[in-house]
Amino acid sequence: MKKLLKVGIAGMLSLGLSQVANAGGDMTEDAIEYRQAVMEIIVWNFRPMGKMVKGKIPYDAQAFAKKAENLAFLSHLPLEGFIPGSDKGETDAKSAIWNNWEDFKAKLEAFQQESAKLAEVAKTATTAKGVKSQFIETAKTCKGCHKPYKRN
Amino acid sequence: MKKLLKVGIAGMLSLGLSQVANAGGDMTEDAIEYRQAVMEIIVWNFRPMGKMVKGKIPYDAQAFAKKAENLAFLSHLPLEGFIPGSDKGETDAKSAIWNNWEDFKAKLEAFQQESAKLAEVAKTATTAKGVKSQFIETAKTCKGCHKPYKRN
């Protein structure tokens, strides 16, 4: 319990006062909706990249690069939505997140790093083959975090 | 009708093949959900900036600058969600958008420009007063587009 409280307070501090004061009546609900919206936009960008890599749609270098750039930026947005107490409610987030906060953050950082690399590779790649291995590395970081920390 | 078709086809082309192929069964529904998710994240960033400007919460220069940077980036995301035909369904978007596509795009571009300026100003501002006028200019571009093109 003491550990949980500590994590909670550290979380509040790392989010900053403005974030805590961000939401209205139900802060937890707002935070859950926020991070789900972020994930939705991540998927929106990720999915067509996957289709290009798999050859289901033609490789469009400019579009792929743009989506990879979006992804790298978006990867920095989810964290502030994981406020303490937001494992309760309409969410697939497991309590394990807050019990393993440093590990959760490390896994999110892996996603940030790999998607930044993907954006870099995509700038000059001209074929799906050119982005494939880094796309797979990035996809692994999604799974790497969802498996321990997301229900379903 | 001919004009509408033209706008529709131009819209499809400007979105690119990958975007059109982005969604699964119900492309329109996905596009509506996508742009609503973008708007939610925009509000999540915008609201605490407003509270700082109004003095409801203390001015946190670093947090404000980060949110302004997010906003400037996010302002480029909504457009691709306004695919032809997505005025039907669970949306507040008016058909007027597709009937006045160039004007709609210009209004969205005004938001992009003003939020980019806000991000620039926020980099060096140390007080709420320092960002206030540019924050107001940015807020005007929200209203400027919502008034003609959004229900409610």
Descriptive report:
Two copies of one chain form a homodimer. With 152 residues, chain A is an all-alpha fold. Chain A has a single domain (27-149), classed as Cytochrome c/b562 (Four Helix Bundle (Hemerythrin (Met), subunit A), Up-down Bundle), CATH 1.20.120. Chain A has seven helices and no strands. In chain A, α4 (61-74) runs antiparallel to α6 (101-124) and α6 (101-124) runs antiparallel to α7. The longest helix of chain A is centred in the N-terminal third of the chain and has 27 residues, at 27-53. The radius of gyration of chain A is 17 Å and the shape is elongated. Chain A starts with a helix and ends with a helix. At the A-B interface, α2, α3 and α4 of A face α2, α3 and α4 of B.
Q: What class would the helix/strand composition of chain A place it in?
A: mainly alpha
Which range does the strand content of chain A fall in? under 5%
Element-level helix/strand string of chain A: HHHHHHH
Question: Which segments of chain A are poorly predicted (pLDDT under 50) over 5 or more consecutive residues?
Answer: 1-25
Give me the CATH superfamily of chain A.
Cytochrome c/b562
Cα-to-Cα separation, first versus last residue of chain A: 27 Å
Overall mean pLDDT score of chain A?
88
Tally the beta strands of chain A. 0
Give me the number of helical elements of chain A: 7
CATH architecture of chain A: Up-down Bundle
Largest interface: A-B, 29 and 29 residues
- The level 1 CATH classification of chain A is Mainly Alpha
Spatial extent as radius of gyration of chain A: 17 Å
Helix proportion of chain A: over 70%
CATH fold-level name of chain A = Four Helix Bundle (Hemerythrin (Met), subunit A)
Main pleated sheet of chain A: none
